Amino acid sequence: NDGANLTTEYTYDANGNMLTDANKGISSNIQYNHLNLPTSVSINGNGNSGTISYIYDATGVKLEKKVTEGISNTYTYYAGNYIYDNNGLKFFSHPEGYIEPDGTGFNYVYQYKDHLGNIRLAYSDSDHNGTINASTEIIEENNYYPFGLKHKGYNNVVNGASYKYKTYQGQEFHDELGLNIHEWKYRISDPSIGRFWQIDPLAEDYVYNGTYNFAENRVIDGNELEGLEWVDAKGNKVYDPSVVNEDGTRGAYTEHAGNSHRNLGRFLSQTKTGKSQFSKLVNSEKPIQTIMNNGKDVVLDSDGALVLGKTTNTFDEKTEYDFGTGKSTVTGADVKSSIITFNMASIDEAIELLKSDTNSEHAYFGLSVSEMLGAIFGHELVHTTSENQTLKVLGEDHETPAYEVGDQIAKEVKEENKKDDD
Question: Which of 9, 77, 295, 326 has the most Cβ atoms closer than 10 angstroms to its Cβ?
Fold first, then answer.
């Protein structure tokens, strides 16, 4: 929307946050909090007049949005996956869409997404006959230009209310007062110009990329990623792969790295395969947290076997809808974040058991605690991938690929130890 033809149509503050946009009628400075998140946007232009206000918690999680037009205030309240408005509960999410109250019960809405996670179709079996009637039960169709601007004229809402919460790449769309922006965890993007309002918080790590660029301008095959990589319990990055060291090598631990992070990284990087896994870890496209469980009790699985390490993923299921049968089929998984836990009591117990079995052919036989931790780390990192999680949700063998990596690391450790002995 070219709403202005001025020499200066955008202004910014000292932190690089956009203050005004003449095209949208934002002539008064946008107000930001300490996290560079907008708290108040006033609009007066293009037939719109009012203010949008936001309230966040101390970590930047949005709690409330208030849209003021004259004497009318429209509220949206956010409680995790539960969204409320002036009239109460509006909807809450489920893995394949969302659920909305219909007065007497609840209506289940399902969504079809493309390869970037954009919602392209929403539908609901409102008459509960097991099939979808395209003329009455297709709720919404979405088609997008590369940076998330919706096509107009042929993909309007078909039945029911438009869903704006997680549309383009899983982000909320705000169209009140003609604002038309997508809200991300750390920044706001304007799909009409393909830019963010704020500077990339990781700009110093990616000097080749423009500070306001969206998804490195890779809008066909790339998602916008924010605040990722190897993190501590608070989400702080513990290793920075972009740092250039005095010897010319790249990568260094940050001030947030503890001894366990440094030791785990060292244990993992002892071998060729381990170094490859370490590179994947520190360049990950999702946050991966590592936890050392130093409890005295061993951890066993349901079969009574020792659990040396465990990976817990948060993920979205990918589904395909069959209009013939009216059913959705799970086709894969997209991992969003991972936590890897190392059970030290179980690892110590495993080493003692292997020592007592001199004929053991186990891949970890003869390894020290640090060497075994490196192999376990490599094993568990396989479980953090979307490819491996897909195997798991489809009921296929997801353990063998992980064992192959861990066993290969153990093999390479033994080979290096043998060279040292010779």
Answer: 77
